[in-house]
Amino acid sequence: MNFKSLILFRLHVKQFDIPTIKEILNDNAPEFSNEDLLTFYLFTGGVAKYVELLVDAKAFTLKEIVDEVLSANSLFLEEGRNVLIEGFGKDYGNYFSILMLIASSKTSRSEMESIMNISLGGFLDRLENEFGLITKQRPVLSKPGGKNVKYRIFESFAK
Fold this sequence. Notes:
Elements: H1 3-8, H2 18-28, H3 34-44, H4 48-56, H5 62-69, H6 75-88, H7 92-103, H8 109-116, H9 121-129, E1 134-137, E2 150-153
């Protein structure tokens, strides 16, 4: 296989479906309940790596799964952070700082720039338009083209 063929080759891995998850639970914890099946699927989404982690930890009930997911050094907790670092690239520290400032009620651009001592226009634009993690919010009586803009963390369940 030459280099050009390697570029065209792509592996597409699908998540496990519910019948497969049910079979995995049956093999490892035959006494599982419907609540256990639902919990197992909700936490893993059928992702093979997550299923493997819970099976290795022998976490098959709601309590066992929650304990494993929230345990120290849990891959489940680190996964989101790692995905963001990969997506943000070498400037991930600036993006994390901006998100932390917004989460701690420092929501205007000037406020954030005075704390970080850098211009944040490009970072804020990418967080809003490329990553979809923040949104602009204008005060009710502000002018449509005015600079009185506040940022907030985007919440997909807010609407």
